């Protein structure tokens, strides 16, 4: 059942007309009748018709009882109306239509709210549920009364205002209170408001041009007094309504020229700053509006911690804070990267010496821009700019210490910033963000005005690290300490007890990687050097002795656990044997291999293996020892010192010989093989996540295979090689910080370098495994062939569409194939390999992959030159519908021609190049242009007269050489010259120029790595017959050239790009708000929900979702009532969403099928709309022109705009019901406009004609 009834509008109007002419007796009887109906109606219903009549009859009553009865009725029915804003509005309108009744009702409500609510200062008061519901209903009723038009009566008293204000901050009432205040402030913004006083007297006649509320201030400081009673958290958690009320309050005060004492208080500005920093978009807009309006209020100077203002320079303050607001809008609200970049010079000026902006507001802007609510790209731009600003010393940072610690460091210590600026070359590994952060910390300490301030900065940074509770990117901590140390060197301070305690706490941070922890120890020890010696002597600080001990260990010893260190230390012990080792293992119950003893035990075993003959190392004893070691390693979960010592022991030649020479059916031999197979698989798995294991694993496997080639088929070497080639291990980013830490430690302790912790770098392991691919003995080429087949298979079985970059593809796969084709392809299988590689080449898109595939195929032709004839045969058969294959064959023929040394081959190729040089297919034509001069030059070099003396060839060669692209060719992989024979060296394969062009490839291995392998062979494997390498090493490539591929990341804003000069150009702003737009709409719900433009757009004839999406965006942006389309499913189409930019979520889009359009337009006519067609007809008026040759072109205030389809326009059936048509005047050759464009122009023209008009 409906909660209220009207009993018919026509019937009520008739009753009211009759009663107007009735005498007093009749009126009283009528009142009694309708009151009886009201009083007996159900308590959950409101009879608005009867109530309205009773209220109209009240003036004829002499006694007060009817007023009391109606007051009680209305007050008790207010909760009934709580679920309908429209009903609340109607009830309030009836109530206030009688002055005395309205006064009685509102006085009762104020008393009720006051009596039933606790107003204790500083608390978010809570109400019991039933009382809370009643007060919420009463506040909503009061709010609805403020929607009544200003020319009608309102109850407005200071007591009512204070009552509403006191509800602010109370749980359950806060939102309602702010909504009521917002409605009140919207009402007061009108020039004239009719009000009644507490005695029910109308103090402002409706005919008055202005009333008492406008003649004396109605608002005061009560809102801000209430705000000061609330907890600070109130303004940081969903405080948008509070700041909306604040904005409206300050706007009203400013418009009335009133004085507001709150603007002189620190609380006012501190709270406003909090809202600006912590809020979401709408709240921040209100805060900016408050800031701008507040600058207009002061009559005297403001001097608070947060805000200072000299009113004699008000214009300058307003100008600069307007600029501040614009920057805030760009950086925090709009967040477009190009706009942010453009405004950074202005940001520098904001921090400059000529600014009047308080540092607290500057830091509010920076804090908001660096908060987690902003996307990472914008935060990075602003953060890197600030790093550069500090490093450049462009201004004092003393006033920004709080921001640096609380706003900047949380952003600056994020892991992604460090990871994204890591660069690693063979010479050095570096993190530019970490270095910049250390520099900024140093500048902060140095630039403080006083020693006390510098110590405070020192303490605050250490406290920040400790306050994170370990939730900080661990590599950032050494950079912070490094900055502090550098700052102390530039500005020496004598640290005291407080600073020492913090330093010692930092030194005990846990969960740090090994080398980083050692670097932290070093840095903390360095910081204690600045502590006053008296402090160190007089105070036994907890942890200082431990720190000193750890520092002494760093200074005088090398890291334990690396294999080289252990082997050296135990190699001279000649009296130990494997049997004796096992005995001690039993006696000690495995303690001689547990924990820290594991490494020395491995060193001892290596010493035993080296000096013991194979016969003295039976497989059962080896198995027992190795099995014990593996169990211990598994128990300890393979930490660094353990994992580094496993491969040299388990894959030592002694263990390998035992596997090879022992009878295959012996149980111990089988178990030993199974163990080594498991160890190999597990260690390879570990090496993919711990790249430091690759050198020791790769070199151990290589030595094992070279010393006993049969092990290749006993251990899963084939799987090992395929897995390595398909998933080459790379250092993880977190490990590269260990490399950096080792570099920094080495600068102070030379014995603490990377090798002392982890041994060789990963590229040494690459060299060892790659060299193994080159040295498979002839009787072991089958495993090598299987490796080649397994790598090639996914390349040859690709199916289009082929992605340019795929996760499973890598350059090492093709490099390995290039090496393996030297030994793994026989005469019988060559055709199959050529077909498979050509299949891969034809579909491959990535230039670097194509380059290597062409090189592989050419090398096969080099070994099987007779097969090269197939190139020209296939080229002659192909037509230009296969441009990729034609271009590939031309390139292969070009690469093969030098080593084939055949004039006939070159002549036939040149003949085919002539038509290809004029091909309409760009790929074919370009390849022919590059090939022709090269073949012609080869012919000159070899003296092939059939080519060089041919006039056609001469003319074509001359023409192509004269082309700009040939004179100054671009340096790309496709244009790079390759000699498939002379360039076939390891250095060219793994360090060639093709790896550095276009998108640079990571250099995995280099000339010096192979040299290191060969030097170790000469030293340690001199007595072993090692198969020769099938690929020459080649000449070294200069390190400068080789390192050009390692592009170091840099901060987006370089230090030398920082400028403090203000930019006078315009800045784009996209958030699109002004002061007026922040004011909420006013009036009853029906008025608030009304769209700004009385225009309906009908687009049902349009099919294209892109055009419909654009029209949705136009319709919502210009405030149209609704958009009609033929199928609502189109709003889910991706093309619709691409142009609508979510506009469909903010206004009504309705479905209107094409056959129903005429009937719909006729119904709209009945509702007062004029139907306008945007169409070119013989009677169309020119849009915007009041008169013309064919008709009127202006648009009516209330209209329906009909758009035609993209091709056919408006159908004749629809044209028949259209009132008028207009067309858009153009002056160009093109006859028509896109339908989106036409719709946008028409809607804009409506706003030009009617915008702002009543």
From TrEMBL:
Classification via CDD domains: SpoU-like_TRM3-like (cd18091)
Matching InterPro entries: Alpha/beta_knot_MTases, ARM-type_fold, SpoU_MeTrfase, TRM3/TARBP1, Trm3/TARBP1_C, tRNA_m1G_MTases_N
Keyword Protein transport: no
Chain ranges of the tRNA/rRNA methyltransferase SpoU type domain: 1095-1244
Top-level division of the source organism's lineage: Eukaryota
Keyword annotations from UniProtKB, A to Z: Methyltransferase, Transferase
Protein name in the entry: tRNA/rRNA methyltransferase SpoU type domain-containing protein
Organism the protein comes from: Byssothecium circinans
